[in-house]
Task: structure prediction
Amino acid sequence: MRNGAELLAAGACVGVSRPRPRAALAAEAGRQGGSVRSRENRAVPTGPLWLAGLALLLSSARAVADEPEFGPQDIPTVFFISKSDDHNRVDYGMRLDASCSPQANDPVFPYWREFENAPPVRTHGLKWVEFLAYGISDQKVVRRKPSGGQVTMRLRQVDRDLLITSWRDMDGKCQAAVYTKIGNVRGAELLSAHVTLTKGMQVAIYGRDPKTGNPVEESL
Result:
């Protein structure tokens, strides 16, 4: 597979013509009965390969550069999705303000937490194509309170409505938890999901019953 630099080099030859000599331009002008003005400016590389290479380089650079930064009240991990092919996982953080209320209109965000070859554990943003598998299809702040709030959301590949509640605990720290239906338990606390990649894509979600504390799980 070509990397971004190779695609850029190949794309520079697509859709780009060299400046034509003045003599050839003059001859063409004579044949057409008009005048043709030569351009001294260098041709700018264009074409689908060049654009694809540029997009690949930008997305790769963004994945490395976008290491998430957390504010003093943010929740680094509300829940996470692990995978069967390695130990890396996608965590979902939540940005909260000083009152533990959701910030802006899209406070929940995914990012990679890499445990392979650790320590150190590395974190970085998702590439654009990875949002198709682990991205958020919809989220909405439905309540803001003096000491917390609520957000509803759905993941692209998990067919389940999620409700995230944030609050301030007795020690003054911001906390958050995710609630959804798991198995026969409505309002179960979602802790994580696991994706098995050996035969297609199989997703299982794990949590606990808030009334009994018992673990619950469901294969989707």
Q: What stands out?
A: The CA atoms of residues 21 and 38 lie 8 Å apart. The helical segments are 4-11, 22-32, 48-65, 131-134.
